[in-house]
Amino acid sequence: MIRVLILAYDFPPYVSVGGLRPYSWFSHFKEFEVEPIVITRQWGNVYGNHLDFVAPGWSKELVIEELPQGTILRTPYSPNLSNRLLLRFGEKRFRWLRKVISGYYEVLQFFFVVGPKKELYKAAKAYLAQHPVDVIIATGEPFVLFHYARKLSASYHIPWIADYRDPWTQNLKETNGFFKHCYSMLEKQTTSKANAITTVSSFFETQIRRQVPNASFSIIPNGFDAQSMEQVESITQGSEILRIAFVGTIYEWHPLTIVLETLNRWITKFPQRKIELHFYGTNKNRFISEVVNSQFPGLIDIVQIHPKLPNHELVQQLAEYNALLLFNYYAFMGTKIYDYLGLKRKILFCFTDDPESKKLKKRFYPLDTNGAIETLQEELIVKTNAGILVSNADDLIETLNSLYLEHKEFGQIVCNSTATEQFSRRLQVARLADLVKNLG
């Protein structure tokens, strides 16, 4: 059996979309004759929000878990000064100092074994000194894991794979020129040494090739956990109130305020109609609450905010909703669309042609699409018959009317999606396993 060492900073129990990708490898690799050894950090869900990313681990010692699926090494984690200041004083104090400290470690960690992520490298090096491994996979970000994988590959003569969940340098639209130049050089020097590169889409491949044009690429898309979806098939939608949910990260180019303003218009026009919009585990919980309280007080009892939940708990919650809100990612697919497909709840896609949303995209969208197709999500929703493509804010008003009347009459919103099974993560793991075995 081929043995693969996986460097994965995000990994359960940390609640992160990025952690689901390496977790699917760990869960299914042995089915395809690959034995996984995951090296991650110790995570605890103490806060239920973004502060869990910088909270300390539960032990100062390396914790080793031997499971039927493989081995997990959880390294100690001690927050640096920047993160300790954040945990103690909150986001509004010492911002400049925290940025300076974080920037210091972000650059220096590529030249010296320093910073809060160094324990993963030390644990991997110690493990490889005593155990044979055939292939190393590093999944980023953080992209310093690519640097660690390159060093380990050179020291122990093991082929390695750089797995990009997102582009590296090309994703740094807001970073100043000096840092972007530094990261560009680091990416070229680091990733060019990889034996193979995997990423989630052909669009990301195009972006990454600008830095490493001669690399060998394989596209390994994201997907949904079929086992989790099977466990919630018996859960029925709520029939009393039309309830819509959104889950995950909200980016600056997403039309969040436009949707809230439109929902406020709708309930003002139809005050007798009952509806709820729930947000799960976003990075904008405080912002959503402030916007609702200051601009749309009529939504105070309608918009509800929930902390992050482990994925198996999250899908159980989402299965009770009538529809799922999805924002436009344009040239790339995103991750949450796959879970939405697996849940077989109607997707409410916002927006395809909204003027204000286009302004947000022009101002904040981080990637230069350079003529790439920007309708990937729309095409997938149409292909699978999984949802409604909402053109603009006015169209959202009409869509809410339609959904409300359907729910009032039938007690549910029907989703007759088809051919969604092909997006199971297990199928993608099979493809990665073939790549690993070819390298090993």
For the sheet with most strands, the description reads: 8 strands, mixed
As a whole number of angstroms, the C-alpha radius of gyration is 22 Å
**Based on CA inertia axes, which overall geometry fits?**
globular
- In CATH, the architecture of the largest domain is 3-Layer(aba) Sandwich
Number of strands: 14
How would you characterize this protein structure?
- The protein is α/β, with parallel strands linked by helices.
- The protein has 2 domains: 200 residues, 3-Layer(aba) Sandwich (Rossmann fold); 198 residues, 3-Layer(aba) Sandwich (Rossmann fold), CATH 3.40.50.
- It is 41% helix and 17% strand.
- The protein contains 16 helices and 14 strands.
- The strands form 2 sheets. An 8-stranded mixed β-sheet has the order 3-4-2-1-5-6-7-8, with helices on both faces. A 6-stranded parallel β-sheet has the order 11-10-9-12-13-14, sandwiched between helices.
- Helix 5 links the parallel strand 5 and strand 6.
- Helix 2 runs antiparallel to helix 3 and helix 4 runs parallel beside helix 5.
- The longest helix is centred in the last third of the chain and has 18 residues.
- It is globular, with a radius of gyration of 22 Å.
- It starts with a strand and ends with a helix.
- The model has no long low-confidence stretch (mean pLDDT 90).
